[in-house]
Fold each of these.
Amino acid sequence: MLRNAQALGVRHSRGRSPNFWNPLAILALVLPLAGCGAGGFDLSKADVDRTLQTGSVGYATPTPDSTSVSDSLTIRNAVSAADVEALGGGPLAWANADTGSRGTITGVAETRAAGALCRTFTASRESYDGVGMYKGEACQGYRGAWRMKAFDPM
């Protein structure tokens, strides 16, 4: 290697060919690694720091934004207006012109519990913030008005 450097005319600043095996350079590279062996840093001697105390923070239920509320009302209206027999288990499309969201309602099933008519369903929601799947239940009140009893992400 030294011959190749001399053949190329490479000279050190003092007029000598560079010495690639300079003992001081080797010592400077090896010395920092000396502490890594025996007597250096050892994780088996580490102890748990018990001075730090943590607490728990209660889970806050996120407040639904106006877009998701508007979309759930649109889905509720589509479920309540649907002719379940005519659907025959097929999909029902929905769209909300106010938010630009749209999707499909599937698996609409009608049940009666304590005299109240309820419809369970699964809905997809495509909007500017992504695609989501929801499981819901809409029930008819005693005055005929429908309300969303459950509308939760899957």
Amino acid sequence: MRVLTLVGDTWHPPAVVSDGLKGLGDRGFRFDFCDTVGSETPGLLADYAAAILAKANHRSARDASPWLTAAGAEAVAAWVRDGGGLLVLHSGLVAYDDCPALTALVGGRFARHPEPCPVTVRPAAGRGLAADLAPFTTVDEHYFVALDDDYADVFLYSESRHGTQPAGWCGMRDAGRVCAVTPGHFAGVWRQRAYRAIVRQSLDWVAARAAAR
């Protein structure tokens, strides 16, 4: 399955995610990486059954102007509800406040983070996507989020000296699926076997219904 993969903003170099995803091993996915995007990008989704959003609302790592418009966000939401699978990683939760259709689709958005610090990520016992996942501790940006979806299935939590936050949640969106995972700022996070397992399992889940289309 080809996966449209949007990476790179002024705070997050594309290579962290692109190298990290390549390290997942063969899962039957081919990642089509885009590190410079614009208002035409939502139209590309028609050629894909699954996508990864791993960039803030910046056109590229060199251009912080927004790439996604409110109308574009409506198109993304329609694609998911029609059966697409969307995985949102870390910075994909950032700076989309002017795109309410996307934030409603994802069910949560970035609020703030303290300085990088040791963060422990723990699976939530008894949640479907948490099965076989292991806790781990790493230095990361500890994302604090506004989780607006009362029906979100929270399967991960993150803990630091600053508190505890939802770190992974998922939900059905009509015929499609959305999953969000907040850790992942540094390459060192991606080198954690337990983190790679989270990404693999989340991608498998969002793509499962898309594969049956």
Amino acid sequence: MNGDLLRRAEGKFDVFLTADRRLQYQQKLTAFGIGVVVIVTPRLQLAIIERAVDSLRTAIQTVQPGELIRVTISA
């Protein structure tokens, strides 16, 4: 399922932002022409994510196609 989503996103987007920590184990990301940024946090809440906006922005700007960057946010 995620493979279909990544295929549909490549060519239209530069980066796929997700909280799915298992994505890197489910898909061979180097096969896709899109960078992946994974948000790693114990609770996926807006207030927590907002604290990491700068780290997320940096990851989004630097990730390369086929690469995965994890942004860890403590609760």
